[in-house]
Amino acid sequence: MTTLAPLAGYRVLELAHLIAGPVCGLYLADMGADVVKIEAPGTGDASRSAYGAQLGGESAVFLTVNRNKRSVALDLARPEGRAAFERLAARADIVLEAYRGGVAERLGIDWARLQPLNPRLIYCSLSAFGPDGPWRDKPGVDMLVQAMGGLMAVMGEPDGPPVLCGAPVLDTIGALMAGQGILTALVHRERTGEGQRLDVSLLNGTLLAHAARLSIFLATGEEPGRWGSGHPYIVPFQAFHARDGWVYVAVWIDRLWKPFCEAIEQPDLASEPRYATRADRLAHRDELGALLSKIFVTRTVAEWMARLEAHDVLCAPVNRYADLPHDAQVQATGMLVEQEHPRAGRFRTLDTPVRFSRTPGTIRAPAPALGEHTDAVLAEAGLTATEIAALRKAGVI
């Protein structure tokens, strides 16, 4: 018996490129939504070329975050292109746009223009800095928001410069918040019949991601600073260099201090007054860190993992990308899968991250070629073969 995908029957028009918007569209597509990716003729999504070609002339990034979607190449700067888009929007459930501020308005495809055509439409604007304030019209990417939103200031070594997070985590946070917002708006529409506009920004997501640190600053006025792999308020809570790699240890409550000391064969440390409580260990961070560093380098990561786990101390290997496919827990998630693509061939990619017992997300189709579905989607919107031919002749599609 085939289970209907949870978002089957909903159509999404995605006007986004690179990571944030496409990852939101990816989740909706994996859950069964018909996600139609609107791209500029000739160039398309910047991720088709910005990251290079790793798989048969295709970008691995584009192939990963744009599977299960259909591509329409449509010039929205032309009046004929805008008119065609309006016909698509009139039959859509969701518009997801990730332009810089003001672009949708200049193109005439913003909420104010489309809502009268489709009162049930859910219109999600995903931006770097949000719809208000002096930065609303500025272009932005994950790294700029890391800087502006305070994330970069708390990353890096204590005596070093601010450090960029090695992955675009804010793009992903923004994508997930946009997806959550869209699904919430869909619930409201199912109850009331009303569409609505929602705004999601990477900056808001960054501030939320700071909750565990920013809340303390707002209460005390004390900057957490930079602590490398360490924790600003708990010691030991950091990565230590082992003989063959790095192991992360988190002695996050006082009752774990004695088991930790036993695991590292230093039982006398447990009764040392300078390290008795969290506050004591924090006050002697440098000397304790230096002492533990000398101990951890004497054994391998696997040896330390076995000893620490035997005493129920929180720990983890610091995996490189090359370690992930071989890690037993990563394997158990089922997140690393293979997919076929007509040009790239068979390649490894990421599965959808949320598991459902009855309506799982699926990988059904490869990422599309630029404009691969233009004719079919426009025909579904009611354009005749003659109208589509005229648009193609004029270079609008």
User: Which architecture of the largest domain would the CATH scheme give at its second level?
Assistant: 3-Layer(aba) Sandwich
**Structural class determined from secondary elements:** alpha/beta
User: Which residue ranges are poorly predicted, with pLDDT under 50 across at least 5 consecutive positions?
Assistant: none
- Assign the CATH class of the largest domain: Alpha Beta
Secondary-structure element series: EHEHEHEHHEHHEHHEEHHHHEHEEHH
Number of strands: 11
End-to-end CA span: 40 Å
Helix segment count? 16
Cα-based radius of gyration, to the nearest Å: 25 Å
Strand line-up across the major sheet: 3-2-1-4-5-6
Q: In the CATH hierarchy, what is the superfamily of the largest domain? A: Crotonobetainyl-coa:carnitine coa-transferase, domain 1
The main β sheet shows up as: 6 strands, parallel
Give the averaged pLDDT, no decimals. 93
Report strand %: 5-15%
Describe the protein in words.
With 397 residues, this protein is of the alpha/beta class. Helices cover 36% and strands 15% of the residues. The strands form 3 sheets. It has a 6-stranded parallel β-sheet, with helices on both faces. The model has no long low-confidence stretch (mean pLDDT 93).
Question: Tags for this entry?
Answer:
397 residues; alpha/beta; formyl-coa transferase, domain 3; six-stranded parallel beta sheet; three-stranded antiparallel beta sheet
Task: Chart the SSEs and their pairings.
Elements: E1 11-15, H1 20-30, E2 34-39, H2 60-65, E3 69-73, H3 79-90, E4 94-97, H4 103-107, H5 111-114, E5 122-127, H6 142-148, H7 169-192, E6 196-201, H8 202-209, H9 211-220, E7 237-241, E8 246-250, H10 257-263, H11 278-283, H12 285-296, H13 301-310, E9 314-317, H14 328-333, E10 336-341, E11 345-350, H15 374-380, H16 385-393
Parallel strand pairs: 1-2, 1-4, 2-3, 4-5, 5-6
Antiparallel strand pairs: 7-8, 8-9, 10-11
